[in-house]
Fold this protein.
Amino acid sequence: MNFSQVLLLTIALVSCKTPTPKDLLKENLIPKPTKLVATGSSFDWTARTKIYLSAEQEGVKAIADYLADFVAPATGFQTEVRTTNKPVSKRGIALFLNKDSTAWGDEGYHLNITEKRVVLEAYQLAGLFRGIQTIRQLLPARIESKELQNGPWELASGTIEDTPNYEYRGAMLDVARHFFDVSDVKRYIDLLAAYKMNILHLHLADDQGWRIEIKSWPNLTKYGGSTQVGGGKGGFFTQAQYIDIVKYAQECFITVIPEIDMPGHTNAALASYAELNANGKSPSLYTGTRVGFSTLATDKEITYKFIDDVIRELAAITPGEYIHIGGDESHATKKKDYIKFINRVQKIVHAHGKKMIGWADISAAKLKENTLAQFWHLKSKTALDAVKQNVKIIMSPAPRAYMDMQYDSICPLGLHWAGYIELDKAYDWSLETFVDGISKENIVGIEAPLWTETVETIDDIEYLVFPRLLGYAELGWSSQADKSWDEYKVRLGMQKTRFEYMGINYYSSPLVPWEEEVVMQKVE
Ligand code: TNX
């Protein structure tokens, strides 16, 4: 294109008033919405577009600001947020809490797009936030750019009705094997939020490091946080930093679930305080990757005083209802001691006003019905034993959902003890049929863990998480009825340009038909 053609095209764009026909059905939304009807036209977000909300709806303004701020860098628009009596009858974008729509649930939303307006309605604020992520994906991929881009900024017209299939949709980040700082965790939260995930599980303590400040036991971080796998300097979150992370996640309607793994996976604590060891002696710090060798002294009273202090301090800075106590791979703890230990820790968690989550190994103990068991193991007995106690399951089966598994044998990062997990394997299964004897009513949802024995930087994190995360997000959010890898992989392939503008270091799997997003220019 030469200069005069560019000029002509620009004039055509600026002077054009008729909306471009667009097909909502051809948009590549992930996770796939529950119901979608296309009306063949589009809404054009311009410099004059405003976001309207009704004055009395608390919390909506923050979400409107989030949307306005999100589009600002790429569009150059300072989209005004205005309060009015009748937000849904204005020309522009309306965000509205519909208090009668209890059936949409906390996270459901309705989106109605015409040539004149975009109306996003939800029963709760979280639903508005999830709906904003849909608006985000309906805008051209270059909306993700931090630099000014050319318009137009059109959204295909039609209606979307959307509610999540599962209430628990999460990812775990292990900050114990390698430490990741507040900015890395916030980046992780941003990426979860983009795909409507609602749980961030932080694995805060393991053999190699203790990563959360506990004021009553200061050596945990001072000494126990001072290294990591490979012998690097480690690190930890102060309580103030943790509170900052929790608040950041809350703004994305994501709940943080903190995990202190016990009674195994505790070498960092045992190294920090001799009295927690059965023999009263501290082991050295550990920077390798073996598992199953450490245990708290389960028959010493000081151990329970320690746990009580840790859970009390953690509960005080954690607004979410759950504390995760690990409980996996306690091979150095005798079975009868393990059972007594878990029963007692469950009481401590409840005494501090929280509910307990543990890896499904905890089903050997006597669990309360409001405890959740996180199924990870190749064998399903642990999950079945939990279900027998009326305990609900978080599905994290390692051969499908472990984001630290390599994609294939030449993948430069990750482990493969549970197999290689290419994108088709990560996506092509269903939560409710994966384990015989466990069905939808036993399951709260899905969580994809990222263990970090081999993961050292945020780039490493992104490479293992992307794009598997999108598949997990869809398994949790979308209804499973018409699911197919062949259809999904095309939608996934269309995320290429978006990932690039988002600056994501993703794995470009050969199984996916990656496509650049074509920039639609209006030539009249
Ligand atoms: C098993 S999964 C573990 C972790 C390791 C992971 C590595 C689970 C509950 N325990 O301690 O980091 O494998 O994939």
